[in-house]
């Protein structure tokens, strides 16, 4: 009997009858027989996952458990600062963006024609960062402030023309977590870092970069212009870690000589969330744009000459340059960046300055009160942060605790206070009382004249027109309608695992018990979150067969780096410093090679055989060649070619016998959960994509969580954190991310998913994902040949369609088919990865058979269009394929001159003799808002922020 209340029947798209239909189509009578033909028996689990995990709960009971955990958190008012601040998320943004699946279920905008909404929002984010920092170009966000600073360091090293002996200088008053992340990143790359007091110019001869905090972590506003001049005399870059809200009042970094600005946009409407996720940012001066890491949104034109947005320049450079890549960052914090952009629009320049001025005035009032009470404010120049010299800091912390306020802990005679947007009269009164005083009006000023901002910012109309909720609401809706997300259609991207992000999983994210926690608050106040983290960690260990895990990495790329760093440090601890070679298959994700280089390794490529498997012969040859220096092998399993390689245990054994370690990329874990465990079939370490297998939504290209998980011998080398001794082993390499537990506020999503699915549900989900992929492969294979299969002719959870012969014969490219799919209402599969001229398709377990058949019908219809080209009925240049996607404006144009009808272009299902709904689907016709975008034009004419106000004069 079916359990009506089971969450698994809501999460898994195909019903039992539909699954049975797919099995019959493939020639199987049972799921067990089918899985036995797909998953090699030498890696198959012998114990059911349901025996290791708690039994599944229904949605109501899971919310109750999450509430019980939330109640164990004690939400204090935080004035700790140190890069994390209270903020107010405008309700119109909270409900219509953060809680809206149209925004949080979208994917990275690789297909820009169906991503114009979030691309416009990111363009605005870049503009806001450029304006506030007074630097010419900004990227579409970074993972957090700490990793942004680390990326800025490597950027500076990359462009430096001097010797390798040059050092990187960090001011002692940079946020401590930022210093630690930079040091962790620098060490394996052999970069020399010195932390010192840079209030006076240093005496170093060879310097490639200098990092300062503005205002610094103690709140002081320092004029760094002389330091910038000194750095430039050494041909070094000056990097300013800064605060966007402070920059509404302070002279911008670009105005006093900074070359790069980094920081976090968290206080622009994104809750602290116990550390994340938040949008880091980076902006650079003119001349550095082609070295900028991460994603960059540019403006180009479409086929009709209309402006259109797209990813520009070096996007995903690691997939092109691989081991020559300068960064392994392959995503951004899109959802959080667009929230911050909308926050800037909602308040506008006047509103932001009002908030900043109020915070600064309140800080002055507090300073006057504590001074009148006999304490000493250490710095006279400040924006929102005070360091106060007191006689008995423990006593003050005790008083603050009685009022449920967290002061910043410094030492026995100093405390810190950072005010923010949420500071009201009650908090200010309580703070004055803690220091033994009462309300005193502000006296004097805390920002010196030389530091006062005189330049304008956010002058573009987009930041000055949406003050009413009506206009803002309509703008948000307009943008979301321009995108194609999971709330409209299947997104069949191979390797990306775009599946249901259930509402129940998302519900707790905005609860204040989770979202209002400061990452550096005392552990006793966040006991519920720590218990949730401990439970989730335990479940991930049981699912994968490993022994230890760190949830700190806030992206899959950072999990890769952490895992390889653990291998590197493990070898070093044994005196094997010479083990620096990392073997990586030619089919691997591009981030693999980039991560290996970041961990101080040298990449050696292993070839694949004709069946798409790692070549055993080439592996043996490379091991023999590099046996004494072999550090690791990185493999993705199932392979990036979508195949379960039966020789995986042999591969692991060969590497281990040579003294190396095995890293299994967890990108394809959705094909393993409940069926096989990498920690048991030979792997030593993996990263897991919680934003893939475990249902954290992709958010338009971020947020993500990429835990690193390993066997016991590597556990001592997992990430730790200088501000939280409970967040990793004392022997760890330092932090990978700025916060102790990374993007902690979204961990309840994966916790809820596992809790509601249980072992049986997770195993069934994996089985159905593999079944759906094989059903789709079998249906499409006669038209678009499946490139690689396993021993029994089956694929894993994804399949690669080989379009190269079609292209050769017809001239129709993968790009043509991808754009034409938009006319049918679909997001294209992954294009030309890992094999050029192919599609990689992954339906996941969440799509029911009707949606899968709808996609198959669309691909069948497109094949018919290709056949017409091959039959000579129409040329490829005149075909609808080459002119796709079709906008409603182009279809309704008075001067239609196409060689095919308007209906063929705009409503292609009609011309194929099908009832419109069979392909268009229940949601109706989707119209892209722009035609095919000219990427080359955008790179030749690089425009990455809104035009200046002078153009509107």
From TrEMBL:
Transmembrane segments: none annotated. Residues 9-435, 460-715 form the Glycine cleavage system P-protein N-terminal domain. Its cofactor is pyridoxal 5'-phosphate. It catalyses: N(6)-[(R)-lipoyl]-L-lysyl-[glycine-cleavage complex H protein] + glycine + H(+) = N(6)-[(R)-S(8)-aminomethyldihydrolipoyl]-L-lysyl-[glycine-cleavage complex H protein] + CO2. The modification N6-(pyridoxal phosphate)lysine is found at residue 692. InterPro entries: GcvP (IPR003437), GDC-P_C (IPR049316), GDC-P_N (IPR049315), GDC_P (IPR020581), PyrdxlP-dep_Trfase (IPR015424), PyrdxlP-dep_Trfase_major (IPR015421), PyrdxlP-dep_Trfase_small (IPR015422). It comes from the Bacteria. Residues 765-886 form the Glycine dehydrogenase C-terminal domain. Coiled coil: none annotated. NCBIfam families: gcvP, PRK00451.1, PRK04366.1. HAMAP family: GcvP. Belongs to the GcvP family. This is Glycine dehydrogenase (decarboxylating). It comes from Candidatus Planktophila vernalis. The lineage of its organism: Bacteria, Bacillati, Actinomycetota, Actinomycetes, Candidatus Nanopelagicales. The gene is gcvP.
């Amino acid at each position: 009997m079916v359990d009506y209340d089971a969450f698994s029947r809501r999460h898994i798209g195909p019903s039992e009858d539909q699954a049975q239909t797919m099995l019959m189509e493939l020639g199987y009578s049972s799921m067990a027989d089918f899985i036995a033909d797909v998953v090699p028996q030498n890696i198959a689990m012998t114990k059911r996952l349901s025996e290791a995990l708690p039994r599944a709960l229904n949605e109501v009971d899971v919310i109750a458990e999450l509430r019980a955990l939330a109640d164990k958190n004690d939400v204090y008012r935080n004035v700790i600062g140190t890069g994390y601040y209270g903020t107010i998320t405008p309700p119109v943004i909270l409900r219509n963006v953060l809680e809206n699946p149209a925004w949080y279920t979208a994917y990275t905008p690789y297909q820009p024609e169906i991503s114009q909404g979030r691309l416009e929002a990111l363009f605005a984010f870049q503009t806001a960062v450029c304006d506030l920092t007074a630097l010419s170009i900004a990227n579409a966000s970074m993972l957090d402030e700490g990793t942004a600073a680390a990326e800025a360091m490597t950027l500076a090293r990359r462009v430096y023309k001097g010797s390798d002996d040059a050092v990187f200088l960090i001011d002692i008053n940079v946020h401590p977590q930022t210093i630690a992340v930079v040091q962790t990143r620098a060490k394996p790359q052999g970069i020399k870092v010195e932390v010192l007091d840079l209030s006076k110019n240093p005496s170093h001869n060879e310097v490639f970069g200098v990092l300062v905090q503005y205002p610094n972590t103690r709140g002081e506003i320092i004029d760094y212009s002389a330091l910038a001049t000194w750095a430039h005399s050494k041909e070094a870059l000056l990097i300013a870690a800064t605060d966007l809200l402070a920059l509404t009042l302070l002279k911008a970094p670009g105005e006093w000589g900074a070359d790069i600005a980094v920081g976090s946009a968290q206080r622009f409407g994104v809750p602290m969330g116990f550390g994340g996720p938040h949008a880091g940012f980076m902006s650079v001066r003119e001349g550095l744009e082609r070295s900028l890491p991460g994603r960059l949104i540019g403006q180009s034109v479409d086929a009709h000459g209309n402006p259109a947005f797209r990813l520009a320049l070096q996007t995903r450079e690691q997939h092109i340059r691989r081991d020559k890549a300068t960064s392994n960052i392959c995503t951004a914090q899109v959802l959080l960046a667009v929230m911050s952009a909308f926050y800037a629009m909602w308040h506008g320049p006047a509103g932001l300055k009002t908030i900043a001025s109020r915070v600064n005035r309140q800080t002055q009032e507090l300073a006057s009160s504590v001074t009148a009470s006999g304490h000493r404010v250490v710095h006279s120049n400040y924006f929102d942060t005070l360091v106060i010299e007191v006689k008995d800091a423990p006593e003050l912390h005790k008083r603050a605790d009685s009022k449920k306020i967290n002061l910043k802990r410094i030492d026995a005679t100093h405390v810190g206070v950072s005010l923010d947007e949420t500071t009201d009269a009650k908090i200010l009164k309580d703070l004055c009382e803690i220091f033994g005083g009462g309300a005193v009006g502000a006296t004097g000023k805390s920002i010196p004249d030389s530091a006062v901002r005189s330049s304008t910012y956010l002058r573009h109309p987009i930041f000055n027109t949406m003050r009413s909720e009506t206009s803002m609401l309509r703008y948000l809706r307009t943008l979301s309608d321009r995108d194609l997300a999971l709330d409209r259609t299947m997104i069949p991207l191979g390797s990306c695992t775009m599946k249901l992000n259930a509402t129940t999983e998302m519900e707790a994210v905005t609860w204040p018990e989770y979202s209002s926690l400061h990452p550096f608050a005392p552990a006793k106040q966040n006991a519920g979150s720590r218990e949730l983290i401990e439970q989730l960690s335990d479940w991930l260990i049981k699912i994968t067969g490993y022994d230890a895990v760190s949830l700190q990495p806030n992206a899959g790329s950072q999990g890769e780096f952490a895992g390889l760093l653990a291998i590197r440090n493990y070898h070093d601890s044994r005196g094997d410093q010479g083990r620096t070679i990392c073997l990586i298959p030619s089919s691997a994700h591009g981030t693999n090679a980039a991560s290996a280089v970041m961990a101080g390794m040298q990449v050696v490529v292993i070839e694949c055989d004709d069946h798409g498997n790692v070549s055993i012969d080439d592996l043996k040859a490379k091991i023999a060649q590099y046996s004494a220096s072999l550090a690791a092998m990185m493999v993705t399993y199932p392979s990036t070619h979508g195949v379960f390689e039966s020789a995986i245990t042999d591969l692991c054994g060969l590497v281990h016998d040579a003294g190396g370690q095995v890293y299994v990329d967890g990108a394809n874990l959705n094909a393993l959960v409940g069926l096989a465990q990498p920690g048991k079939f030979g792997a030593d370490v993996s990263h897991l994509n919680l934003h893939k297998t475990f249902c954290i939504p992709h958010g338009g290209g971020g947020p993500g969580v990429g835990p690193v998980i390993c066997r016991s011998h590597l556990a001592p080398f997992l990430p730790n954190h200088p501000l939280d001794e409970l967040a990793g082993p004392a022997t760890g390499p330092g932090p990978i991310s700025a916060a102790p537990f990374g993007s902690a506020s979204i961990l309840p999503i994966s916790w809820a998913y596992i809790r509601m699915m249980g072992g049986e549900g997770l195993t069934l989900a994996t089985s159905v994902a593999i079944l759906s992929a094989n059903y789709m492969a079998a249906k499409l294979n006669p038209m678009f040949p499946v490139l690689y299969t396993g021993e029994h002719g089956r694929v894993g959870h994804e399949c690669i369609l080989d379009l190269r012969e079609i292209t050769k014969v017809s001239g129709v490219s993968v790009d043509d088919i991808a754009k034409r799919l938009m006319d049918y209402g679909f997001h294209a599969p992954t294009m030309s990865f890992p094999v050029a001229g192919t599609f990689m398709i992954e339906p996941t377990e969440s799509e029911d058979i009707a949606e899968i058949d709808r996609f198959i019908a669309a691909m069948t219809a497109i094949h018919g269009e290709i056949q017409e080209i091959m039959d000579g009925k129409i040329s490829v240049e005149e075909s609808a394929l080459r002119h796709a996607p079709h906008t409603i404006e182009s279809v309704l144009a008075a001067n239609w001159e196409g060689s095919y009808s308007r209906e063929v272009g705009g409503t292609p299902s009609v011309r194929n003799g099908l009832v419109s709904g069979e392909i268009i689907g229940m949601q109706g016709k989707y119209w892209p808002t722009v035609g095919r975008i000219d990427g080359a034009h955008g790179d030749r004419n690089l425009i990455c922020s809104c035009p200046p106000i002078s153009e509107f004069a």
